[in-house]
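FW: tagging you since you asked about this chain on Friday. Here's the raw sequence from the shared folder, copied in full. Didn't touch anything.
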Amino acid sequence: MRRMRQNYETMLTNAIDAHQAELIHAPLRAAMIHTTSYVGHHGCTLVCRRIGELAADNGIQIASWLPLRFDEMRIDWTRYDLLLVNGEGSLHGDRPAAHLIANLARLAERIGRPAYLINSVYENNGRGVAAGVSRYRRIYMRESLSRDRAREAGLSAEIVPDLSLTWRPSCLPARGDGIVVNDSTLGATRHELFELSREIDAAYITINGRPPRLVDFPGRNIGRQARYDLKRILGRLSPPGRRRSAAVNGISVFDAFVEKLASDAAVLVTGRFHGVCLALDLEIPVLALASNTHKIQGLCADVGIESRLFGSVSEIRRLLKASHLRDLRYSPDELKRIRSFRQAALVRAQAMFKSIADDAIGLGRRQH
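HL: got it, structure written out here
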């Protein structure tokens, strides 16, 4: 009987040890908040894809992909060890989205989970937003201007370049032989870019695709998908112009969008931050215009390609008329800087997720 008891106790001890070892090596479970890919934006799609991949590389499983607006009372927060909040292009102008992001750090404190702000812009926010953001365990900005503005607001922020820049495309080298014109978030600039595309007989494409189905909120995007499909139909029936061109040349999914750039663009003209990022990823020479924040200026300065940022569409028009496409290629020094920057971006991103995982484990937040 004694031997049987000893054998049972040994088996029980071994089982407990095995379970504890499994818990130690099991990935942390994270709720990723502000899943920007839900709008169908191709740059945001890549960012969220990379968040999932880089987090997994460092022992963090994205257990749920949440939008920025949700009912916190309907979510079982005990399922998660930590919160990741994607700041992306929303933390500026003291706008409602900026306040929502700031308040998520307070939510994390209420539910007893550590929260980390990643991949963010920061510009022209008030004290209320800064006070909320200061409650995050770690704060990571996408470029130096946002880091500087955050520090001026009293925030301890680090730079990790936009996570789209950690991507390694399979379609390198790009093989395009013409000019492709991308759109802008600014309405007036968007109109000017389309007019430029007509003048130079270039392809005009938008960066928006069809909104995807949300796994965690399956009914949330039905209306958005219907509006996208209706706009495509109506756009194709419209008279010649930007709406029709956007509908005819619109590309629904990310991989097809990338293939279009890689196969057609010897030069990309864009007013989109992620247009610039994708041009750097694909090593397509870019001519960029400022967007609704300083994010493109900050990125170009950080990479060392400030000469590819222009103040107006008119400046780009004059350059294109006076230049051959071969004159607009990246110089060897530019290409070296771009490759070095992207390699450093990957190293920084891996270090960021490792630091987040280590911090969450150190706080003892793993849920058994």
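FW: The domain at 168-209+250-329 is CATH 3.40.50 (Rossmann fold).
HL: agreed, and Residues 332-362 form the longest helix (31 residues).
FW: great, closing this out.
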